[in-house]
């Protein structure tokens, strides 16, 4: 069978959404009113830390699909003031969130043990205002949330090949600025991080054979597999990768913005940045190339995402090993597209209704395990009871 990215069709039940007159949908999605609706119609569990587990009404997969959002809509009314990545979350909240991640990922691996039959992934996305503010969909829901998704590989195999030039399939390869011009610099920088649980994968060794993805991304195997997710050290290293990525991204685009810029404030690894980046000719040459183009190409300059844009992912590879990867592009592809799966959502209440009972049964079992571990209390909705 030909390897390549696939485009699957996922049915959803159309959502009756009344957007107030004069507001755009993306503006309404940011509001406390919309998040209140999310809780009452799709909420599964919430806890005192403000973490909300919910069913994805517009999901990626009807096999298994859920999210946790750090719901600050009632406590931080300014959308641009809300935490949007792990490093901005208070440590007590992050500890609870990590435990929730561990339990949900553990359930997915238990329920879908065969990597030949199911693609399992979990990850977070940057929700900073990293696009130009005039672009459609910006800002979307500006609150940190992550995804837990399972795809039936039989469905993926049967799906049509996605267009190779799909703009969302730019996680690396020829499209990525970091990959094309700073490949060695990028990897050498990550090699300087203190990682013990995460072991670098040989380049290309962690791809999903069916799709050929991820492409061009540095990846790390989780030593100890699922058991390591129960260790604090793994989650510390998961954060170290993100902090390292943010340092690289911010340092690069500060040099693009301003020639010979000083070290950005709040850098996590200043010695590493000074030694591996600010004195590296390839790094600075690439920054000059982008800066020069920004000065003469208005369209190119407007598309730059000046703040860190990333997707960070835990997934299972074909050999059954757990892998961590992080996107390195300034385009911002969807979480599933890092693994070569493009999702085309189609309104079809009847098709969704056929999949819904099994999906909800799994989500309620996950909720039961989280409640048992004292990670929150159940929420009642029109579709399910609080317990």
Summarize the structure in words.
The chain contains eleven helices and 13 strands. It is α+β, with helices and mostly antiparallel strands and 387 residues long. The protein has one domain (6-378). The strands form two sheets. A ten-stranded antiparallel β-sheet has the order 8-9-11-10-5-6-4-3-2-13. α7 (232-257) packs across α9. The radius of gyration is 21 Å and the shape is globular.
In short:
The chain is 35% helix and 18% strand.
Q: Tell how many strands the DSSP assignment holds.
A: 13
Element order, helices and strands? EHHEEEHEEHEHHEEHHHHEEEHE
What does the radius of gyration come to?
Answer: 21 Å
- Helix-residue proportion: 25-40%
- Quickly count the helices: 11
Estimate the global geometry from the Cα principal axes. Answer: globular
Query: Could you tell me how far the N terminus lies from the C terminus, measured between alpha carbons in angstroms?
Result: 45 Å
Largest sheet composition: 10 strands, antiparallel
Low-pLDDT stretches are: none
User: How confident is the prediction overall: mean pLDDT?
Assistant: 90
Q: How many separate domains?
A: 1
């Amino acid at each position: 069978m030909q390897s390549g990215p696939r485009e699957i069709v996922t049915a959803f039940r159309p959502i009756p959404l009344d957007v107030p007159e004069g507001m755009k949908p993306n503006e309404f999605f940011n509001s406390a009113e919309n998040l209140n609706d999310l809780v009452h119609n799709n909420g599964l569990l919430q806890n005192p830390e403000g973490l909300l587990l919910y069913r994805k009404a517009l999901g990626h997969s009807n096999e298994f699909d859920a999210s946790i959002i750090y719901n600050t809509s009632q406590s931080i009314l300014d959308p641009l003031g809300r935490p949007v990545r792990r490093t901005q979350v208070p440590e007590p909240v992050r500890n609870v969130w990590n435990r929730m991640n561990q339990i949900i990922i553990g359930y997915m691996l238990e329920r879908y043990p065969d990597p030949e039959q199911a693609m399992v992934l979990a990850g977070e996305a940057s929700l900073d205002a990293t696009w130009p503010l005039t672009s459609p969909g910006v800002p979307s829901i500006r609150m940190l949330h992550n995804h837990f998704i399972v795809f039936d590989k039989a469905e993926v195999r049967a799906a049509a090949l996605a267009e190779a030039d799909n703009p969302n399939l730019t996680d690396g390869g020829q499209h990525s600025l970091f990959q094309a011009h700073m490949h060695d610099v990028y990897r050498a920088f990550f090699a300087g991080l203190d990682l013990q649980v995460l072991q670098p994968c040989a380049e290309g060794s962690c791809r999903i054979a069916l799709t050929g993805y991820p492409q061009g991304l540095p990846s790390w195997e989780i030593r100890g597999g699922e058991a390591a997710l129960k260790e604090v050290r793994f989650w510390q290293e998961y954060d170290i990768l993100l902090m390292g990525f943010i340092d690289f991204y911010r340092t690069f685009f500060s040099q693009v913005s301003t020639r010979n810029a000083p070290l950005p404030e709040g850098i996590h690894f200043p010695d590493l940045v000074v030694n591996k980046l600010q004195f590296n000719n390839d790094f600075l040459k690439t920054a000059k190339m982008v800066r020069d183009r920004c000065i003469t190409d208005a369209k190119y300059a407007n598309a730059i995402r000046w703040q860190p844009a990333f997707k960070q992912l835990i997934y299972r590879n074909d050999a059954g090993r757990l892998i961590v990867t992080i996107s390195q592009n300034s385009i911002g592809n969807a979480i599933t597209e890092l693994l070569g799966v493009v999702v085309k959502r189609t309104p079809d209440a009847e098709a969704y209704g056929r999949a819904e009972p099994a999906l909800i049964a799994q989500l309620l079992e996950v909720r039961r395990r989280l409640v048992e571990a004292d990670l929150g209390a159940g929420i009642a909705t029109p579709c399910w009871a609080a317990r």
